[in-house]
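Look over this record before class:
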Amino acid sequence: MLVVAVVLSFSPAVGAGSGYRFYQVQGRPSEPIRWNPCTPITYRINTNGLAGPASVQRVRRAIGEAARASGIRFRYLGSTRAVPDVRGRAVSRAAGADLVITWAYRGVGERRSALLPRVARLAAVGGYDTERSARGFRVARSGFVVFDAARIFRMSARKQYLVALHELGHVLGLDDVRDRRQVMNSVVLDRGPAHYGAGDRAGLRRLGRRAGCLVPAPAPQRPTAAQVGNRVEIVTPAVTSLSGKVTYTLSSPELGGPVATSSTPRFSVSLARLAQLGYIAAPVRFQVSASNRVGDAVSQVAVYRVPPAVLASEPSVVVTPNSFEIVEPRAVLAGTTVDVSIWLSASLDGYLDAHQSNGGQFRTDLSRSILVYGRPVVSFDVLGSIRYQGPGLDRTFDLAGSYLTGAELDPLPDPTPTPDPTPDPTPDPEPTPDPTPTPEHVIPAE
């Protein structure tokens, strides 16, 4: 709770300050703790049998100046019997207003307030309580101003008006400064300003309407939850935030609290996750919350009932130069039957045929065939499909196609040509002449 007092002085203050200061800041980058300037500050006045109509009108004029300087509207709700004390927030609730203004004496009891400390020359105290959101953001709430009746009525009407301006500055979030040109100077001067100074007004602008609204993000509409392919899509319309960007969070008690965070109100949850957690033919609840820097709000619950049989993903074919695999869905919920009928042709140096009838395993001697041929598989040509059936489920996936493995098939070597006959280096010998000549003509003897 912020409680700030104003001390009286009858001589000018010495020194100058920055023009304005905030009493409390928060966040990174820091910003002052302030009221929501887009909502009127309601207030009630308790004369407590001590203040007259002139004092009430003086305070209401000061409220009008604070409203003009800050851009925040104030709404007068009438009188009250509540007297702010150390339980300022409780008094504000009892009075039914955001701000309670009264005159009282120090102490406890009738016409007294424990907020007035025993400090000499103290004229009044003013301040506020804060309310913290779930995100830790604090907003000013439950303001109060208590004038010390033993001292305030000894002051001139001009100084009473300045004290009211000063305390309302504290209510809105300004701190004291050492600058005699400002109403928020820590002492009231005989010849000081009659109205908020330039520094006061600059600080009030940063606390007021120009700084923007401080409103938690509104609650999103109840989301829709429906199956899209192999996932559950949870969608709700975007909300409009008056206090910065919105972050959406999907939560589910069945999934263990927060599930995902996004800048858009669109989420999806895989059916595989629901299957792995055992939610078969069972309801799963989803909610979407919207939050900004001020606070958050959550939607109503959407219920998605998981079917008794559903595919969590689609089957696919994965090939390598020495393997062929059908990757089946990661999760097939209970009650589902699988019928597989695949013809496989592997392109080696020739063909390798295999037939799969069930269970996801090919009965083939693929590796031995690869060893026999000594070459990798270049592609697998598939003709066939997989059918999944169950309660409310009948889906067939055609896996036909040619699946390349990425291997390259080296060309066969050219056949070796037949060499020409090698000539005999030794020549055939010449014929040997007969030493006995063959007679050409024989003359008989006489």
Remarks:
- Confidence is low (pLDDT under 50) at residues 6-17, 347-369, 438-446.
- Residues 53-70 form the longest helix (18 residues).
